[in-house]
Amino acid sequence: MKIQLIRHAALWLEYGGSTFLIDPMLSAQGVNPPIMNSGDDRRNPLTPLPGPVQQWLDPDAVIVTHLHQDHWDAAAAELLNPKLPLLCQEGDGEKITAQGFGQVKEIDDNVPSVFRGVTLSRTGGRHGTGEIGARMGKVSGCLFQAEGEPVVYLAGDTIWCKEVEDVLTVHQPDIIIVNAGGASFTNGGHITMNEQDIVELCHAAPTASVIAVHMDTINHCRVTRGLLKLRLEQEGLLDRVAVPLDGEWV
């Protein structure tokens, strides 16, 4: 298994003999407006792609965990081949199909999908709490399993919650990819994992390796790589959590 952080939540995963492009946000730097009610007027994405976009346009399949613009943007819909197999959560398939994609498959909440010998299972999460969490809507993670490969858990846009804890207990993943950044608005709590959430996750899965992404790219993500690494060092967890730069392979 190899994984490359492209930028933010966009990942290139080589797993079980197939390549997966996950949550592609392929917009050029600064072409999108700031996230509203963030208290930060910088335009998104804050950073450019770490290389020519063409290198990420020919995966075996695309996985979209949910349809927020920082996980599936207009550039991705325009640049990717509409004939590519695309897997998404239940309820999102119709919108993606309307964008011209002809091989869209929703991952059933209760029945795993199999792609070329790789079993893909949807996992739940909470994209915040209270009114903010309700407004953010349904989000998903994904569990990857294949013969001869580690069990990989992509948590998706979620905070530390029972749904995440249940996945750790039941499936005991070897590798956990978390969307960090502590994204938040001017009111309400955080909607992606902050430093404390990741510390809790590490304690709950003491044998797993963790990869933290989803930082330094969107204007409402408050937890930078530097802040996260400082907290992990204080907790003695820095050797267990990879915090890759854009374009870096793990």
Summarize this structure as a short list of keywords or feature phrases.
7-stranded mixed beta sheet; 250 residues; single chain; globular; alpha/beta; 20% helix; 13 strands; 6-stranded mixed beta sheet; Metallo-beta-lactamase, Chain A
What would you note in describing this structure?
The N and C termini lie close together (9 Å). The model has no long low-confidence stretch (mean pLDDT 97). This protein is α/β, with parallel strands linked by helices and 250 residues long. It has six helices and 13 strands. Helices cover 20% and strands 23% of the residues. It has one domain: Metallo-beta-lactamase, Chain A, CATH 3.60.15.10.
- Note poorly predicted spans: none
Q: Percentage of helical residues?
A: 10-25%
**CATH topology call:** Metallo-beta-lactamase, Chain A
Q: What is the number of independent domains?
A: 1
> Which strands sit side by side, in order, in the main sheet?
7-8-9-10-11-12-13
The CATH class label is: Alpha Beta
In short:
Helices cover 20% and strands 23% of the residues. The chain is α/β, with parallel strands linked by helices and 250 residues long.
Task: Please render the helix and strand layout as text.
Blueprint: E1 2-7, E2 10-15, E3 18-22, E4 61-64, H1 74-79, E5 86-89, H2 93-98, E6 104-107, E7 113-115, E8 118-123, H3 130-136, E9 141-145, E10 152-154, H4 162-171, E11 175-179, H5 195-204, E12 209-213, H6 225-235, E13 241-242
Parallel strand pairs: 3-4, 4-5, 5-6, 10-11, 11-12, 12-13
Antiparallel strand pairs: 1-2, 2-3, 7-8, 8-9, 9-10
